[in-house]
Amino acid sequence: MDSAAPYLTGHAAPSASGSVFGPVTGIIHAVGWVITYWYVLMAAAVVGWVVSEMVVRCLARKASAERMALELVPSRHFAPGLEEIFRRGVQLARASTSMPWWAPRRAKAVQIRLRADGSAPLRYRIEGPAGGERLLSITPFGPAVTVHRARPLVDKPREHVVRAEFILRGKPTAPLREVPLDPDPLQPLVDAVCDLRAELGDLAEIRLDIQRAPKWALRARRLQLMTDARRRERREAQRAARWMRQDADGIEDSLAWQLQQLLGGRQGGGGRRLVMPPVPRRVDPQDALGKLAEDDHLVRVQLLVLCASNTEGRAQARLAQLQAAFDVFGGGSRWAMRGVRVGPWRFGADRWPSRRGFERRWALGHCRPPRPNWVRLDELTGLLKPPTVHCRLPLLAGDLPTFEFENPELLLQGIYRGPDGRRRLVATHAAETLFEVGVGKAGGGKTERALAQAIGWAHAGGGLMFVDPHRDSWPRALPFLAHDALMQRIALIDLNANGPAPQVSSWNPIGMHQGQTAHEVVEATADAFASALGWDDATAPRALTILTAALAVLIAVNQAACHAGRPEDQATVFHVRALLTDPAFRAAALAGVQGRLDEETRSWWQTVFPTLPVDSFAVVLNPIARLAANPVTRAFLGQPAGRYNIRAAMDTKMIVWVCPGGNGPTDRLITALLARDLLRAVRSRRDTPEEKRVPFRPYFDELITLTGAAPETIASMFEDFRKYRVHVHGMTQLLARLPLPVRLSLVQNASTLASTAGSQSALAPITAEWGDQPGPDVVAALDRFEHYMSLTIHGRRIGPVRISGPHLDDVFADHARPRHAAALERAAQAKAGAAPLDQLTARATDQLGRVGDFLAQLAPTTPPAGRLQKKGYQ
Fold first, then answer.
1. Where are the beta strands (DSSP E) in 26-183?
2. Which of 353, 515, 587, 727 has the least CB density, counted as fewest CB within 10 Å?
């Protein structure tokens, strides 16, 4: 009865099957609920993803606000090695992790920005975490690259903007092509932006983000690659086995096989041949993983490009050029533009839905490539450094200003042909163009370029002096200077005496009517004779002493004449002969200026001069006799109060054309006198405050001729004139023919160094200053009017760059006034006080008598005269 109780009460005992099916039933019920209410889980997942994404974006934006920017400016001779570039890449990868612990991975990146906007050919910037600034500021490139903190860049809105994102296509484990350092790997990118025009709003910018590769993603990718490699190997093994079985079956079923079996007596024995299938080969991780096999120096990159312009079509064309430039880096893998092309449209970073993400990453510097663009640092060699010496950079308007007519701040240099074929007149800033040197063979275009520069400077209101021993430059420049605004500023000093009734100007080197300082005039005149004749204290001390003493007396006479209001009674250099050989004239002169001479000079005339033999005067009188024998030089130097006054010309912005007339001994002496007087006049500007000194530009054509007369004087000009705002421009056929002091001073201080074609040996000293880039063989092959020149812009040397010399008939065609040329020549001669040659010669002959009459009337006790007011051209 007891055993039947459970059955009587109606309760069933738990079974083993019930305990098993209970969890299964729960799982089934849970699955059913999920299937029924899937939208609840989906909504919860979406909400969770949205919330987490908002939090991550907020943290990433906060981390991006703490970024810093550095700009790297390479020197002209920047030539890094592979090891230096690789070390820089390691620095960049390390700096990408210099973020707070809470910063999301997308914000942990360092960005390289290559930018062309018209301010520079290609600006190179590094942007990254503020914590990595110290690490990034000290580069392995050394002093060849200047690193400074960069300000944020603000772009004006452009009308047309295109965007692109480049991703790695091809075999994911294959590297990019190894690009050599010479030529620079950046050259294709520079060439793509070389025709950028800032005035049209052109802009091109490339951003390369670098960050450490995520370890978990890298392991997953390796596992996937190894799995795929093993699957391919098994598939290949299976395919090979299948083909082997098919081949074996075909052989056994063939007539030849059956005949072989019959003849061999083995028919019907053993069945078919056993075929051993090939075993799958072991997959080598190095072959399967390629560049992903090792963790070291593996980074993830993101490449974004933006091009803009205010002109339709230019931004799209620029992007196509950059796309072609990136093809240079293509190898086993390549850079390809992300997106899909459908007919004429391309759906990529410029269209929905990718555009918004592109703009967010562009603005914040986040690195979120759509696919794992993993590369090794040595694949990015070309992008990890600024442009090197092997990169050919274009000249932009910001690098070399465009010449503007009548702009006194610019100095014409020539015509630059851009990469796009456009030609523009280029210039340097007048304030920093201190000295210029032009070298090249005769007829190569040196003088033509100097004339164009001088004419442009004259029309801008500047003063200049053009010294041409051969006079060819004057008729060439005449039509372009024949303007009413210039006629009153031009003076012609022409000693060639051309025509049936030649006109000659006049100058008294020892005249005191223009307010010069007596001892400066004595020194300048004596030094001019010494320079032209090769005198010095070792070879001709007596000649120097005699000439200096004679000049001191004659200048004292001239001071007395000017003080008495009789400048027409002044003595000239030709009175040195009378002073040394005519006792009556000497006695009258010494008596008339007794109170104006210092004690040492009076003592020399009283004690030393009487002891000198007569033949000791010959060395002094000989050059003066040669000057007197030439009617032109006698007329030019024999006037008591000449009109030539280079100090007044400098201060009043005059245009003075000086044509000495040749390169003979007499001409060299005239040139030496003029050069030394110019040096004296420039140094006399120390009496004027620096800010009030008017800029003045002497142009010296045929430096070989001029320096033959006054080498030390010309050298001193290139050394001293900058202080007085006088800037010399010199031209010569052969640099080696110049005296060593002139050559050294000239090359050392040249702001602009230009060369036309010539022999390689003659051009070698010039190209050596450029580091033989280009070499003498390249410069020697230039066409006529073509120049290579190095220029100074904002204190930085530009070039050497190839520039076409300006031709007057082209550049200043609109300013030619050939019908007014004769009027200008007459006005220029009148401004210089030119008079008929025979009239001036007669006056010079009679001057000795006038000076003698004045000395006879001069009282010995005449007090010394004060300095007179300076007079210029009137």
1. 67-74, 110-116, 123-129, 145-149, 160-170
2. 353
Alpha-carbon separation of residue 518 from 283, 523, 552, 561 (angstroms): 100, 9, 8, 14
Q: Is residue 837's pLDDT more than 80?
A: yes
CA distance 861 to 145: 73
Kindly report the number of other CB atoms within 10 A of residue 695's CB atom.
Answer: 17
Residue 23 neighbours by CB distance under 10 Å: 9
Are the C-beta atoms of residues 373 and 300 closer than 8 Å to each other? yes
Whole-angstrom Cα distance, residue 713 to residue 676?
A: 6
pLDDT at 870: 42
Report how far residue 306's alpha carbon sits from residue 163's, in angstroms, rounded to the nearest whole number: 5
Q: In the chain, what is the straight-line distance between the N-terminal and C-terminal CA atoms, in Å? A: 157
Tens digits of residue pLDDT in 531-556: 888 888 888 889 999 999 999 999 99
Cα–Cα separations (whole angstroms), residue 744 to 435, 530, 758? 13, 22, 21
Across 531-575, where does the E strand assignment appear?
none
> Which whole number is the average pLDDT over 153-159?
88
pLDDT tens string 234-278: 888 788 877 777 766 676 666 676 677 677 765 554 455 555 666
The CB-side HSE value for 533 (13 A sphere, CA atoms) comes to 24
Give me the residue label for tokens 């080498």.
711
Per the CB < 8 A criterion, the answer to whether 795 and 773 are in contact is: no
Q: What is the dihedral of CA 351, 353, 356, 362, to 10 degrees?
A: -70
Outline where DSSP puts E strands in 630-773: 655-659, 696-700, 729-732, 752-755
**Residue 749 contacts residue 455 (beta carbons within 8 Å):** no
pLDDT score, position 479: 94
